[in-house]
Amino acid sequence: xxxxxxxxxxxxxxxxxAFLLQPAWFEAMLTPLVQENAPAIYNQGxxxxxxxxxxxxxxxxxxxxxxxxxxxxxxxxRKAGAEFLPLSRSLVNIGQTFPPVAVLALAVPIYxxxxxxxxxxxxxxxxxxxxxxxxxxxxxxxxxxxxxARGAGMTGSQRLFRIELPLALxxxxxxxxxxxxxxxxTATIGSTVAAKTLGEVIIAGLQSNNLxxxxxxxxxxxxxxxxxHDALQGLERTLAxxxxx
Length: 245
Hints:
Blueprint: H1 4-21, H2 27-30, H3 47-76, H4 85-92, H5 94-97, H6 100-111, H7 115-139, H8 143-151, H9 156-186, H10 199-207, H11 211-244
Helix pairs in contact: 1-11, 3-7, 3-9, 6-7, 7-9, 8-9, 9-11, 10-11
């Protein structure tokens, strides 16, 4: 449906793709932000491929965090694993306890420079929102539905995969959405340890006092965050609607 918010999202997507594929079209707009003879468009690499690599890093870290966080939530919502809830909460809080910069500083001596330290930092940072939402989704299921499934003779595994997870999925996806948005911004610091992210553009701008570079990196990340946030939110609503049908 072509509502005003949808038209705005479409416009943001079109402008973003145009800038990534043909940044020279926007040079005149950015030139007033740079010093004389300084480049207005980032010229130390492809903005398109930096964006692809940035998204890849975020996807890998979020996927791993989702698998681990949802698995932990499933374990602690079973009778046999209920006693591990405090320990699980302590584990997923590690990422929020240590800032990503501190995680990078600890990971670089072990894994070296590159993408791996960034993946570890994003993975740890993304665990908490996914775990807490998965826990909420699995512990607030309609009792009548669960009892009906049990009365129908479903095993524990059948109830989990056919009833509990599908019903909890919209809430779990909310945690994934929060994790993705956090990771999109946090991934930029990965460039301080030689990871290929949009942080390269921002750091290059800060080092050369080039406001246009800083603006490019920041606006691309912001646009990605808005578009992905809205896309996942729309998916949540669709899934929630199907659950309540």
